[in-house]
Amino acid sequence: MIEKEEKEKKVISIIRDILSDENMESEMEIAESTKLKEDLGFDSLMLAVLTVKIENEFDVDVFEDGLVFTVGEIFSKIAE
Amino acid sequence: MTFLYYKGDEYSYDQLKDELIQEHYGHKIIYERSVYRIFFWIIHSMYYEYPIILLDGSLSENDCLELGCDISADHAFPVSSRFSCYDEFHRNLINKQLLWSLTLFTSGTTGRPKSVTHSIETLSRTTRVGPRYTGDLWAFAYNPTHIAGIQVFLQALFNSNQIFYLFDNEMDKFTEIVNEFKLTRVSATPTYYKNVIMTDPSPCKSIISVTSGGEKFSEVLVDQLKIKFPKAKIHNIYASTEFGSLFQGNGDSFEIPEQMKGLIRINSKNELLVHKTFLGESNSFGLDDGWYNTGDIVQMIDTSHIRFVSRSSTFINVGGYKVNPIEVEAKLESLPFVQDSRVFGIHNSITQNIVAADIVLASDINISQKEVSRMIKMELEGKLPDYAIPRFFNFVDKIQYTRTGKKIRK
After folding, report:
1. B26, B44 in Cβ contact below 8 A?
2. Is A20 at the interface with chain B, CB within 8 A?
3. Are B103 and B53 in contact (CB under 8 A)?
4. What is the 3-state secondary structure (H, E, C) of chain A?
5. Per-residue CA distances from B133 to B159, B161, B251 (Å)
6. B83: distance to nearest CA of chain A, Å?
7. Phi/psi zone of residue B262: left (φ > 0), alpha (ψ -120 to 50 degrees), beta?
């Protein structure tokens, strides 16, 4: 359980890093239901950075089968 | 009838025709940000038959100078047309009877972009005209100054179709606009389609044709496209700035039209060679006995079909855009705190690749690596297209070179 929480914290910290690298607001609340594109403003290059960083960290290609809309969906993919 | 929908504005064919007839001055260089102005000037140059150079309006004037195009010295000149009306011009356009050329720039293998000049013939090789295409409504999803955008634009212009600009920030409205106006055709990169599906997965039932160039459709994406566009045929186009569109295909395999047989060849390294008759004009093609080496590795399936095994390795394909690592390295090394660099792609399932760089810092630099990454990104903004700016950095002591002085590329 602790491991799950830590993994999720790590994902959120990766997301915040990417936002801050792009000079975008990075301190907002990020929850499972937060949408990557609509709520956080991720474009395809940011999603590409996200997928590479998550793969480096957890060895899972979260976008392999395409559809990931929310932060919660990333959590489920890395928990599989 | 509407010619273009662009950011909430509507431009009609009547307005276009009026402006065409009223504007008696031309420009050699087209350097515009408004999509309507870009299209207007392309049509103007065809109507009055003068050659143009098309530049991406997001380049700085300095970038244009580096390409040999001095915007400040591009003075208007008077023009006159041999056509008595738009319809006469349009008939000549369809019959490809225009004394006209369009020059655009592509990544060169030597690190300096090269210019390629196309005639109406080379640009409209795969353009189709006829009753089947008359009522088409196009979802326009490319940069209008790049070859793919120009080809969609010509397909629409040949058939007097309506164009709905849905590139860049307009992409978020894709599903809404397509469904509201019942658009029928779309051509875009796979990355664009992935984005559209992620933004709104609900189906677009009016689309009858989905085309893509630039990178391969994965099987996963093809399945998703079939759900997103349930009534559409899905095609791939093999095209480049050098030769425009060459083949159409499904998935990996492309059909070689009868008239092209004998004009493409495969060499002993399985690289695809294209005969010079298909190329635009450029003095930097490096032709070998009239043949242009695409660098793409292919395999013959049967006498009429080829399959792409891998694309030319010199370039990094980011979401359908070719990034020349040598160009990016040159920009990096022009920064005072970068001594040496090696640029490469990291594979991912969103944009196929994302640009990364090994960096050797100048010896007197004493700031954190995080800070350096941020500085590099800031410095390169506006000097390189967004997709070409490295997103990952490794800080290394030195870059490996071959004995002949070339960077070792993995």
Report:
1. yes
2. no
3. yes
4. CHHHHHHHHHHHHHHHHHHHHCCCCCCCCCCCCCECCCCCCCCHHHHHHHHHHHHHHHCCCCCCCCCCCEHHHHHHHHHC
5. 6, 8, 24
6. 45
7. left
Q: Tell which residue, B76, B15, B73, B72, has the closest CA to residue B45.
A: B76
A76: distance to nearest CA of chain B, Å?
Answer: 17
Helix (H) or strand (E) holding B94: helix B86-94
Is the pLDDT at A37 greater than 70? The verdict is yes
Contact across the interface for A49 and B199, Cβ inside 8 Å: no
Mutate which: A26, A52, A56, A73, vs B, most B CBs within 10 A: A52
Helical (H) or strand (E) element with B318: strand B316-318
A56/B contact by beta carbon, under 8 A: no
Distance from CA of A50 to the nearest CA of B (A): 10
Q: What confidence tens digit (pLDDT) does each residue in B237-292 have? A: 888 888 888 888 876 678 888 888 888 888 988 888 989 888 888 877 778 888 98
> A47 is written with which tokens?
């999603």
CB-CB: which of A45, A61, A67 is closest to B201? A67
